[in-house]
């Protein structure tokens, strides 16, 4: 004799599994960390913008003016987000953050972060075309693509289009690296 489903089992997650039981308030820390990361990003933007503005001036026609405005906006947004998350937290947002935390594939996230750091470190040495092609193919592999030939072709075409668009159309020189003599 079978027992009908009472509907008390946890709902299925986006990947077919069931969600783990979410502790109340489990998303608070993640939301606060996000606010702090926004503030740290704002600090970097402001630091670089002020460094550029010291050489060129602080007027609206100067190169550091718009980044300073963006940095100030990020500081305001980050502080407001941190205050709101601390003083009057949004319960629905906390529950969603906790649910997303349980569904996040953290290993993939850390692989992508390490790949971005490696990309930034190798960009000048290898050059934009080579570094971006390797980065694109690597991230496609991490994301599940196993069509390496297709990924390499797309990566080379995409990297070349961006490289020549920036250097020829916009006049912004991207690192040539190992291909500097050819480009």
UniProtKB/TrEMBL annotation:
The chain crosses the membrane at residues 29-52, 64-83, 104-122, 128-145, 152-174. Residues 35-175 form the DUF1468 domain. InterPro entries: DUF1468 (IPR009936). The keyword Lipoprotein does not apply. Keywords: Membrane, Transmembrane, Transmembrane helix. It comes from the Bacteria. It comes from Arthrobacter vasquezii. Pfam families: TctB (PF07331). This is Tripartite tricarboxylate transporter TctB family protein.
């Amino acid at each position: 004799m079978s027992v009908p489903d009472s509907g008390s089992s946890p709902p299925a997650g986006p990947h077919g599994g069931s969600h783990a039981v979410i502790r109340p308030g489990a998303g608070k820390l993640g939301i606060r960390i996000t606010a702090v990361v926004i503030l740290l990003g704002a600090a970097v933007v402001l630091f670089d913008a002020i460094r550029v503005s010291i050489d060129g001036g602080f007027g609206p026609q100067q190169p550091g003016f718009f980044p300073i405005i963006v940095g100030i906006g990020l500081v305001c947004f980050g502080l407001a987000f941190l205050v709101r998350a601390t003083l009057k937290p949004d319960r629905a947002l906390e529950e969603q953050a906790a649910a997303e935390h349980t569904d996040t594939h953290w290993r993939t996230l850390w692989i992508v972060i390490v790949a971005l750091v490696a990309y930034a470190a190798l960009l000048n040495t290898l050059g934009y075309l080579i570094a971006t092609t390797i980065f694109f193919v690597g991230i496609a592999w991490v994301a599940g693509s196993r069509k390496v030939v297709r990924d390499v072709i797309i990566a080379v075409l995409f990297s070349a289009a961006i490289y020549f668009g920036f250097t020829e159309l916009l006049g912004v020189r991207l690192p040539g690296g190992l291909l500097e003599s050819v480009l």
